[in-house]
Structures are given as structure tokens and as C-alpha cells.
């Protein structure tokens, strides 16, 4: 079973991408909706949440862990890899690899939560792979709450997105990394506001492709995974809006199971 966790709605874009890439594989998802967003939490708190989320998924039978959260990926990856003896995937590296493949002018933009942008993880990984690349980043703290509230096509959302991406347009980026798995939900708005010439990098699609390649290269790991095409969804809080948005992202009715995770 493939275990996927996120702070809320955003991780469902990764679930959808993994379902598309590996339709026969069983998936268990945990969305920490009671404690979302992670982007305004301290690094220490996010690490503690990530450990707890991973332990929960392992209890449910996960043999691979996918951190479908850029904030968690930016601060907790090393801790999880040292603590747990199973493959741990994060969303940042696949997005960076894809951005460097697609950029034409080596001018890359990144949008994400405040915690992700302040960590500098995207700049570090991009420059480690390409010394010539220029990276411009913008924190977008209002976008996660807007997505969680289902404001995916409101005038206010369009106005805020325009304000956030304007500095990146001025710097003439040619590639934009969506550094939060919530952002693909509003990708059409982001694409319109940043302009047709800018290539959008969706980390959920890049990550799903990397997992599929890993399982192709490691058949012994693939053989340990359930392949009944089932997906189970767990959350730490259930709201009507989350149910509505989740159905829209997954593109079919889903059953949400509430669980309590306490620090």
C-alpha cells in the first residue's frame, strides 16, 4: 500500500496523480485537516506532525510514504528517512528535476507557503543541479486557506493570485513551480495570471511519475504492495467544504474517515 499524507486538501492532487499513474495500486491517504495549514507552523512542529502522520500510515499498512506537502518536505524529509526503514518520497525534488528539464532561459519562479519559501529548499536544490539557474520565489500565504474554503474561482482569488505572481512576471521567469500541492486546484487561475509563455510545473504529476519509475526499477518492493485498486481516505477533521472539494479533486465520491491524532 502507498501511504500519502498532507496537511489538508492539497495532498489529494497527489492522490489523483498516483491513481492515474498506478491505477491498480492500493493507496491510503491521511489529511491533517484539523491542524492545517502547516505553512505557518514552526519547523519543529511540522516535523512532529510528520512523524505522527507517518506512523499512522504505517499502522494502516503503508510500505511507501509520500509526503504530499511541500512544507513538510522542506523541513522533515531527513528526519523521516532516518527514523523509518522504508522508502520516503517528498514533492520537491521531482518538481525541481522537471523544472530544469523544461526551462528555456534558466529563470525559474517558485510560489509556496511562507515556511516553504523561507526554508530556501527550492533555491538550494535548483542551484545544486544548475549553477546557471536564476530562482525567484514568492510566499503566497493566502492561497491555501482560499483553496480549503473552496474559493477556486472567486474574483478575490484571482486578484490575490495576480498580486502574488506579479513580481515573478516582472523578473521574466519562463517556468513556474507550484511549490504547494494545494495550488494545482487553482492552476487555471495561476496559468492565466502568470501568462501563456510560462510553463507550469505541477509537483504532484512529477512525483507520481517518479514513484512509478521507482516501482518499475524495484519489482521486489512493488510485489509487496496491494494491487486491488482501492483507496482509503482518513482526515483529522471533516467539514462539508472539504468533502465537496475532495470529490472535485478526486473526480468521484469518496468516503472520509475521521481519526484523532494527538501530540
Automatic annotation (TrEMBL):
It is an enzyme of class 5 (isomerase). Keywords: Cell shape, Cell wall biogenesis/degradation, Isomerase, Peptidoglycan synthesis. Gene3D superfamilies: 3.40.50.1860. GO terms for biological process: cell wall organization; peptidoglycan biosynthetic process; regulation of cell shape. The keyword Cell wall biogenesis/degradation applies. The active site is at 69 (proton donor/acceptor), 180 (proton donor/acceptor). InterPro entries: Asp/Glu/hydantoin_racemase, Asp/Glu_race, Asp/Glu_racemase_AS_1, Asp/Glu_racemase_AS_2, Glu_race. Pfam families: Asp_Glu_race. Substrate binds at residues 6-7, 38-39, 70-71, 181-182. Its EC number is 5.1.1.3. Pathway: Cell wall biogenesis; peptidoglycan biosynthesis. Provides the (R)-glutamate required for cell wall biosynthesis. Belongs to the aspartate/glutamate racemases family. This is Glutamate racemase. It comes from Desulfosalsimonas propionicica. The lineage of its organism: Bacteria, Pseudomonadati, Thermodesulfobacteriota, Desulfobacteria, Desulfobacterales. The gene is murI.
